[in-house]
Amino acid sequence: MSYLYISMTILLTVYGQIIVKWKVMEAGAMPEPIMDKLIFLFSILLNPWMLSVIPATLIAGLCWMAAMTKLDLSHAYPFVGLTFVLVAACSAVFFHEPISLVKVSGLSLIVAGIIVSSQG
Length: 120
Prior knowledge:
mainly alpha
């Protein structure tokens, strides 16, 4: 069950990152004047999709706490590195962001690190 909690933490974190990027891209460029920046950011925040990130983040935190009741932090925390891999993959799929050989190499090292660290 602990690994389900970790998985939920990861998926909800990735969800939040993708929604934020989507809605910020949709809103366009941030204006220069400070008051316009605040109004701009507040208007994005009030979007229902953006508001959905708040409970997703809260639930992710609760799932993490539940996982911590059963697992050592040093064992569980490396799995959070999967967020980097999943965000990169989702960014490529949803936002057509490039994935270079260097990026793939780095993400592969993250996965290898997770595999190695989960053994001990």
